[in-house]
Amino acid sequence: MAVGALLAPLVEAPAASAAPRADEVRHPVDHVDPLIGSAGGGNTYPGANLPFGMIAWSPTSTTGDQTNTAAANGYAYDTTRVRGFSLTHVNGAGCHPGAAGDVPIMPFVGEVDSSPTADTKDQKYAATFSHEKEKAEPGHYRVGLDSGASADLAVSERAGVADFSFPRDAPARLLFRTSNSLNGSENAHIEIDRERHKVTGWVLTGAFCGRRANGGENNRKTYYRLHFSASFDRAFSTVGTWENDRLSPGATTADGGEGYLTGADRAGRGSGGYVGFDTARDNDVRMRLGISYVSLAGAESNLRAEIAPRASVADVAAAGRAAWDRRLRAIRISGGSEPRRTAFYTALYHSLQQPNLISDTDGRYPGMDGTPHRVERGQTAQYSNFSGWDQYRAQVQLLALLQPEVAGDFAQSLLNFARQNGGVWDRWVHISGATHVMTGDPSAATLATFYAMGVRNFDAKGAFDSLYRQATVPHPDGLSDKGCPGQCEGQRPGLAQYLESRYAAQDACHCWGGAAETLEDSVADDALARWARLLGRTKEADELGTRGGYWRNVFNPQATGAAGYIQARNRDGSWVTPFDPASDRGFAQGSAATYTWMVPQDVQGLAEAMGGRDKAAARLDGFFHKPDGSWSVRGGDPLRYDPTNEPGIHAPWLYNALGQPWKTQETVRQIVTTVYGTGPKGLPGNDDLGTMSAWYVFAALGLYPQAPGRAEALLTGPLFPRAAIAPAGQRRALTIDAPDASDTRPYVRAVRVNGRPHDTSWLDGSVVRQGGSLSFDLADRPDTGWATDPGRLPR
């Protein structure tokens, strides 16, 4: 393989489509800005990665606390001081610090005369930089530091190459902060081999969300070990290690972790090592590095397999750029302004960063039971990093649409983990750890969605049986309050009570919030029911279909004097009072006003409970507008739409089912043009492993998933005159033509599907799965007659 072999699959022809237009984007990679979302709470990172890759090499910033960082995932655009370039990252997770950030490697100009761990305020062994000397591209990151050193990084899937430059005739050192993962570490180890010009080691860590107040203590635990092997093109002039505050010049091994606390409870703990170089004649240092979650041998094998011995940063960057271009060409847009193209392809770039490989090139990966495993027969790779509560609403649908083979491998990966975890499907999986973060049963919704959208390369029967058992047989963890509210251990908490009462009781649910848990489980059960129907499992389909309507048991039609709302209930049937629509009591990261709309599987039923479609639409108007009629779509008001978090992100499309699709068209366009954009603040909030970015991709295309467990899509006005969606491995593209698309023409006047008039505001799943043509006639004013037939509304 190596670089030459890495390039081989990149010449694979894209799926067949119509002849390209003159204004069609030829190389989508040219329109990606990895810095979008790196400020304002987006929590993206700008470093080098590949689609679904294991390694993500990016800066770790500092604001003067070595036990913390400037943003959840290690990089904040407005903080221009770094203490290293870490090997692993997770895109857009919201816990601060988020996850990973393993083994920061720092080019340092000066003598190492004290322990870097003792530099608890990052005053000495860190450096500032300016954005004028920073360049971020897909698969490639480089920056010049004010110290005079620079870092130029490029990666394959599991390995990377770096060029570090130093001022001539100044002390040049490279620090390996092996213990300094974002959340700390249990232990770490480093070995320096002067004869072979190598540095190897590992960090034993985990602790995702381990600092959050609402349950984080439960996650201050270890669940993975990252191994690394780094080789250099030249000899070391000096070496040394450190443990806590003790520096050992000349030493070649060190051990020690930092723990999982923060501030004074962790400061000054940890270990690492350094190597130095003579810059009198040559001030450039090349490093080749491989990583593995299985073993040192795996890290070295991954490096040999993916990067040729003499490959330069430019070689690897070119291969990475080609890899990204190939993945991004799954959607080819035409027309649109450059800012629109940049926002779109960067959103697609962020959407395709996960799931992440955790298996080596030989197929071995760390299991959730703490032992190594090998991928199943027919499985290409093992993937992880599943932010289920977020991703099941948009990102998994985009993954299934564009990369069905990856989606199938991911589904098999989650099943593998469940089998290694006593049959329990964790709702937020990081590497090989069950973190329990958030609420509901997103694995059920995710795999049901994959199957509905045509993904078949996984053990669908085994997965359904396992998820059905989880949904019907109580597990002892479901009665535990450990980790609650934010990281409750039970994946179907309080299941026996739920099945008896037909809702999760606020005073007995062992969950984040009883009302939210009921809504989440209703969505999951409805998705499982649809999957069961496709599998011919009629009995299970009927049972689960009924349970998909349990949301009704937490809808209180008299919650306030003016309107009904979703409201938490106690086990005795009483409503939890006092009730306030702006309160999050009974909910998870959202208010009752937001969660009341979280019934995507039964919008007609919700409208009926609200007094009919017209009354529901009027209420939805108030969700997106202030009393004076002005828009309220930027968040910050608990009574109205919040684009920064997931429970309500489907709400703009609900107008389609309420018989007023023109309001979906104007609302989606308002959000697209005012909440999203370019620049570091171009995302509304946490990207949540590509979820918010996937929302934007769908909105720009004029499509959105109708509900989990289904392939149908809801329609709105596209942003671009043309888009061709060519899923990997599928011959027939789905083309979307909207010749009059512009900022002033968001409204749909007519639609044609495969050349025939189409009078509904939704698209059958067969078109999504099999491809075809979709044509829009757009206008600058609403057409209040199109797609409003009460008998043909989305259901």
From TrEMBL:
NCBIfam families in the record: aman2_put
Residues covered by the Glycosyl hydrolase family 92 N-terminal domain: 31-292
Domain Glycosyl hydrolase family positions: 298-779
Matching Gene3D superfamilies: 2.70.98.10, alpha-1,2-mannosidase, alpha-1,2-mannosidases domains, GH92 mannosidase domain
EC number: 3.2.1.-
InterPro entries reported in the protein's UniProt record: 6-hairpin_glycosidase_sf, GH-type_carb-bd, GH92_a_mannosidase_put, GH92_N, Glyco_hydro_92, PNGase
Gene Ontology molecular function: hydrolase activity, acting on glycosyl bonds
SUPFAM superfamilies: Six-hairpin glycosidases
Keywords: Glycosidase, Hydrolase
Alphabetized PANTHER family for the sequence: PEPTIDE N-GLYCANASE PNGASE -RELATED, SECRETED PROTEIN
Keyword Hydrolase: yes
Protein name in the entry: GH92 family glycosyl hydrolase
Source species: Streptomyces rugosispiralis
